Each structure stands twice: as structure tokens, then as C-alpha cells.
Fold each of these.
Amino acid sequence: MCLAVFLTAAVPGTVRGLEPVSALDDGFAVPAQTGLIEASYHYPGAESFIRGYFASAAWSIPFGQSDLAVTTVHAGTSFGNVGVSLSYSGSGFDLYGDEIEKAGLSYRILSAVSCGVRLTRNAMRIKGFGDASALSADLGMVYRPVESVYLAGSIEDITGAEIGDSREPLDGRTRFGVSWAMTGDITLLVSASKVRRFDPSICGGCTVNLFQSMTIGVTGGNEPDRLEFIAAFPFRTLMFSYRGAYHRDLGMSHGFSMSWEAGGK
């Protein structure tokens, strides 16, 4: 399955940033308070742009198939120019399951540039065949030339890890995304991703802040062809988000997420 990378705006009154996850992916919908909390899951280097402590959790049902449901949790903090994060994502049922654990470290080498590295453990199980796991590493960079623009890129599995006795290579991804808050309420977004052995996926769209209390948006992309609908609602220090993805042959996917931030400036 080829999965896309998405960007969007943050809620009114906060820093706009990146949101790279699809409802077909790890369940994150739209960004939380800084717009970078959920982005830091896929982009090593984003953590050091976030002030204070942050945490997020997501759950998604790809194509309405509960057996494929994905649960993801992600948390971290930053101090000075350094950011750290830990995350876990898992899915599966009786016959098959997989999980990914990540530990990330990022550093702002300049006020507008942050680089990051992430150690990753990939594990899978198949009933009757046993378990297998592999260690890998990812690299990423986030660039914010001005307050309203973010550019981010990442390369997964730079070590070329292989898993199991069959030495199957990991499905490493290369990701790139740009978001531009062109006005106080409208953000344009474009992104692309390439999974090994699959064609590139490209998408674009926009988000709009309404009534100073919610964010809505729409994105469209290929590989797979789809439309995605976004909605986010803040409540105190929490952000509740939903993304629905429609595929003309496979039907709807649904992703829900909740994010929290404290101690930011």
C-alpha cells in the first residue's frame, strides 16, 4: 500500500506547521496546538521546534477494515535547541501483526533549520511462522525560512535493514512536504512520498480556520487516488481531530487523533 504525506495548518492563534499523516497511515488527522506535534512523528527534526512537552494518540481504520486498525502514540519534549521523542505504532489480528517503535533526537543548528535522527525497531509476527524484528535509522530536516512557511523532508531506513530469515527489506519511505499560511486563516499544502517498490504519491489541498474555534480542510492525491476531509476542534489544551479518506473502489477510511501540549512559550 502506498501511503501519502499530508500538510495542513494549525488552529487559530497558534504556530502553523506541518501535518504529515494520512488516515490511511497512522491515524493522525490534523495538527495539534503547534502544528508540529503530529508532524514530528514522521519528520525527525521537528521536535526541536516544539516548546515544552507534547503528546498525541491516534487510531485509524483503513478502508473500513477493523482488522487493519492502527493505534499510534507519540510523545516528547524540547529544551534549548534540542528535542527528543518516543513513539509506538501497532496493528494486527490473530493471524498477523506488526509494530514500530521509535526514539528520536533533533537539534536546531540554526534558528530556521533543525536536523534529526531516529532509531527505529520494526517487528512483525505471522501465526505459524513466528516473530521477526529489525533495527533501522531515519534522518530528517525541517526548514522554516519565515513564520508562515515550513519545508520538511525525511529518509527512512538509511541502513538498508532486512527482516526475518528471508531477509526481506523494509518498506522505507522518502517524504517531502511544504506548507504556506498565505493568510491568517488559509493554508496551502503540497506533499509527496515514495515507498520502495511503489510509485510516488503526490497530494495537495488547503485548510481553513473557521469561527476562531475549528479547522476544516480538503486534500486530494494519487497512489491511491483519494479525497480526504479534515476537521479539528480544540478544547482547552487538547485538540481532537478527524480525517476521512474516500477511495472510489475501496471505500472510506477513518482516522481520529488527540494531541496535547504544555509548557510552550
Amino acid sequence: MNSNIINDLINSYTNRSSNSFITLYNQNNTLVLKHLKYPDYLIKLSNKDFESSKKQKDILSLLPNNYNNFSRIYHTQVDNSDGNIRTLEIIDKINGTSKKEYTNLEIINTINSLKKLHTNLNNISNRNKFFFPSLKDLFNGIISNAHMSTKTIATEIQSYKEYSSFINSKQEYITIADLVYENILIDKEQINFIDLDPLILGPKKLQFSILLTSNILIQSNQFKILSINLIKKFFSLYGYNDFNREDLISLSIFPLLILSMRQVDLNTLPKDDSSMYYKLKVILLLIVKELANMND
């Protein structure tokens, strides 16, 4: 993408050329605009941290040009033109539709696509020059602010020696910390990722566990049949056949982080199969039960 296109897009937005843009998305403090002259690129305004956006832009630029199942960031800047401070990004327009429910084939394709993306991110030769927060630092800080009901479950999980070995293992793998369905577009058999924020460093298996607990396991058709055997089946599809306590620990991370950040009271949370919080609570309780049942 050349600088002339970037300048033209920024100038059109700054000058409020409303007849030049189509609004594609305007929810959850995020605005996505398509320029009629440059339909292959989008302007995205959000509350994403600007420094995080810059690092994401730089590291994605190091991936091969022929690898195109994610949305690259070509330009990022702070914007306060409407009185609100937001991060403005120019990104790829990626084909596909976000889906709350996947077919079996779509699950397999998503697993394989994530595995490829995770491998490519961690094969970048000079990736160590980028500073990303580690899971250990992020996790400990967030859990300290959780509701007592979540802290109680966290404390039980942390009592296992496998928690210590997992959280203190080498935090060297770049990991996409949020893989909710809105961030994954399905275009027939092609799986595209549109927002890789935030990026953190963690153990290798954390990435797949986040896909399961932020997306696949909370899909209604999977949640209805939720079991440890179902989870083991998915781990096997990813290539992890030796399921153990550390894998259970890795599966607890996303639910604990989300429930802690939202300060959810698990004791008063009503049964509601449409609620993400309720589903994450059920997943956590299943993990706690299996941790106790699994042999040392």
C-alpha cells in the first residue's frame, strides 16, 4: 500500500467527505468505514491502545506478503477529530462473515488456520525485539481485582503444582488473547482473522486454549455437549494428544481473565445458556472437577 493512498484516505476522513465513505460497522465503540475509491481498504476507529496498534502493525508487516488470511494494518495514528481520543487504523478489507455457530468443517478449518497463523507469527526471525506483556504479568494483575467468587475458583486452580509450572514456564510464544467470533470471518473454506489485538506472550498451548474458551466451546451447539472428552477431541484435532493437568490450567486462563475484568459475581449469576459469563462459569467448574479427578 503506497503513501498516496494512505494520505488520500486520511485527508478524506479528516475533511469529513461523507459521500466518500460507507459505514460498515458502528458498534461497541468501534467504527469501520469503507472508502468508495479504495474498496480494498478500511478505516477503523476504536478504543484500541495506540502503542499496541503500532506494535501489531510492525510485527504483521514481517509476515510473508503471500500470507493473506488476516487483516494487515498499514497505518495507525491517534485521532481526536470528533472530540473523542481513539486509534485510527487503515487495514485490509477481508472477505467473509462472522458466525456464532460453526459447522464441523468450519471448526476444523478454523483450528488449522489458527495453527498456521500462530506458527507464522512465532517464526518471525526478529520477533524478540517487540515487547508484549506476558501472560504471568497480565494474569496476576487482573485476578487481584476479581470478584471474590472468581478469586475462590482461581485460588483452587492455583493450588495445583501444574498451575505453577504452567504460569512460570517460558513465556515466549506470541499469542492472540481474544478470538471471539466477531474477530474471525468465514469465507467458504477460507478462515480470516480481522483483529489480532491484544497480543501477549505465553506458553505454546495457551493459543489453542483461548480459541476453545473464547469461541468454540461457548457456541450453543458445542456447549450443549460440553465434556472433557469433547475438549480432548478438539485438542487432538490441533495435534495435542497427551491431555494433562497443564492443559486444563491453560483452558482456565481466558474464563478467569474475562470474569475478573468484568467483576462478575458467580454466586448470583443466573443459569442462562445464552450468556457468555454463565458459559465461562460452567467451563471453569468443569475444569475444577476434572483437576480433582485427574490422577497425578
Amino acid sequence: MKFCGSPYGNVKADAIKWYDSEEYTKAFGICEACYEDTFVDGPFEGRFSVSSNIEPEREQWYCDNWGESCMTLVLKEDWGRFVEHVNSRIKLGHCDGEQRTVRETKWWTVRGIGPETGFHICETCYSDHFKDSRWEQVIEQLGADPHQVLTYGGNPKNNMHIGIALWGAGSRKLGAEELQRSLFAIASKPKCGTQDGFMNGLYYNIRGTLIRHYGVCEACYESRIAVLELRPFFTETPKVVPGQTYSVFNPAVDRCALFLRQFIDAIQIGVWSGYEDRVRGLTSAPSCRGIDAMKGGRWWGWPDCTVCQNCFHSFAADTELATDMPLQGATAGPEEQHICGLFSGGQRTRYLEACENGDLLEFLEFCRERQVKWGELWPAIQRLQAEISRTQRAAEIATISSHFNRTSDAITFGTPTTQYVTSSGGRYNSYRGVIAEREVAEAEALFRQSSNPRAEQARLLAIWGMCE
């Protein structure tokens, strides 16, 4: 069953099953995951059925049930107010995070925080997360200049700190005052969710032996660590990290999704030590090289299926057969090279099937054949890539040189005394034009020459693809 995609939406290819009710407007749809989580075995289950609406091929659909307000009305078992909420909410449309003037919609902000902080909450987000909920008293309607242009600073999609704080407050059952304090703290800190990160930013680290290449910025700390009551596991005060830096929860960080997944797992399981171990392993691990062999490094797994440090800590460490691996962080020699056996989706699926069956024989046999095929194909693929790169560089140089000579030929000072004529019929004011024509022919020949190795490389990659 696919996870609810709101507020990011789903398309028809995601094969989501949607539910709605005859008792309210059909424009309000509930995804299968939310239906199972919220309504099955609940007071409203019999009021819903699979939607008869047909989802267009290229259109995104959004689950409308993911907000706190819907959840609150379900818990209150108030179907009348639920229908009233649904019918009024659907008229507001989807919050797209674009700028709007105050005249076009109503706005709210955190009570007592003031409009200058940028926490502007549109009517859609107000309806989704605050209206009829225990947090409604946290915010107040914003009275502002009707010509002022505001952004959706309160949209959890655009402001990830608000979204995480709301999720954390819900999971920890925080009261309105506690959530309000958290939003005040978030508003007072620089926001990290940008491609630029911070210059000389302030970061918290895990308490004890500090982890290199790991830091939680002040806004992430307030929205995640403080709201989720994890302060005892982190340093008391942030430290300046010089240079351009990023919080581990910033989407611009390559491993942001891994850090976030491990973090959420630790929260749901309730065991923090496992998160620290994973973080230490991930931050010290080089990125997986995939099909490229890597010299040296630390390896897990089996001689026929070596697993790099990154893929072990991000994927294999929590699997049932992880403790049976004979290689447990073995250090390879500086000239010893391996490829990671669990970097691709196909290999990971085969490995998980082996974990489920408790039988590694078939999996390791496939890995042995895969290693042999890699040894046959990969040197040839690399050689072809080098040949393609050489011919493309030569063709580019010839093209640039041809452009220069054509330009030079076109510039005449006075009346040309000699006109050059080539065998192909080209007529030029100077000999540079003749050279340019020759270089164009060479560039075209080089591009044609590179097409044969490219086709062969594609064939070999297709063969390798069968191993993945």
C-alpha cells in the first residue's frame, strides 16, 4: 500500500485507490492508506466506498485527509461537523505555496508573533491543520494591509519546520501552549531548507563523542529535537561550524532522506542508541560507487557479495541476515577493489527475499555469476566510454577551430586579391576558410565515429542490466 502523498500529490501511475462518500462533495478524496489508518474499524467506516471518479493520466490528485482538523473530528465521532468541514474545505482548493495578496484570501499567523516573522498561514492550511483542532487557539487571524503580498510561510510543504513541528506535537500529544512556544522558537531562527545552507552556522551535535560531518541547525533543533523531547541526547548549546554548511535535515544534503528515515525509525521504535550507531556509520562512509569498483574502504557481506559502508548502514544493517555476514567492516588493502553488491533495487529485492526465506545459497550463487559478468563487461564498457570521450573532445575542438577560421575568413580588410575555391565548391576570401571547411568535415566524421562505440556500450550496459 502506497504512503499518502499529500501535500505532494499522486499521479495515476502511483495506482492509488481513492475513497469518498455520497454524503458530501465527491471532490474530497481520501487515499487508501489514510482510509485504512483513520476510518477502518472506526465510527465512519460504513460511510465511505471506493471512488467512482476516474483519475486523469497526467493530473495530480491530493489526499485531503492528512490534516489535523480531519483527524480531530473523526476522534470526536461528529459526522455532521465532519461533512460541514469537508464541504467548506474543498472550496478553498490546494495550497500551492505561491504568493497571494491579502485581498484574495484570509490569513492567519501564530498568536502574538506578529506579521513580520513571515509565518503567514493561508485559509487552506488553517482549515487543514488548525480549524476545529486542539491547536486552533495557537493562531489568530491576521489583519494586514489589503495590498500587501504575503507568502504561504505556514504551508508545511514550503516550511518544513512547521510541518515537522505539527507532526511531532501530534505524536507527543503536546498542548497548545507547548506548540506555540515551539513555533515562536522556530520563527526566531534562520531557516535551513535552502540550497545555500549557512555560512558559519550554529549547529547542535549528538551528546558524547561528537560526530564529524553531522549537525542539526537551530530551526531543525526547535522543530524536531525540542518538540519530540530529545534534548537530553544532544549538546546543550550550538557551536559555530566555519564555512558553508548544511543541517543533516536539509533536503539539499545528499543523505537527507537516509538521516530522516533513521530518525523517524528511532522515534517510532523508541530506541535512540541505534540511531546514533547508524549516524556514525553513515557520516564516516564514502558514497556508494555503484557499478564502479572502489579501492580500499571498509566492507560488509560475503566474499561473493561485498557491501559498502554506505549501503550497509543505510539498508542492510537492520536486516535479519546482517549478523550472519562473515565480513563485518573488514578493511580492504589500498589496491584491493570491490563493487557493492547491494546498490541496486534488483539486488536489494533478491537479498530481502533471501532474508525472508532464510536461504542465502541461491542469492550468493547469483552474486557469483554477477561478479563474473561484471569482470567480463565492465572493462569493455569503460574502454568504450574513454573512446567516446576522446572522439567527442576532438570533434568539439575541431568545431570550435572551424568557427574561428570561418569568422576570420569573413573579416576582409580592403578588397581581397585571392579567392580560394575548394573541390566541394566552397569559395573563400582567405585560406582560413579552406581550413574551416576541412575541420567541419573532420568534426562530422568524428561524431559519426563515436556513434559505433556508443551503440556497443549501450548493448553491453543492457546485458549488465539483466544482472541488476
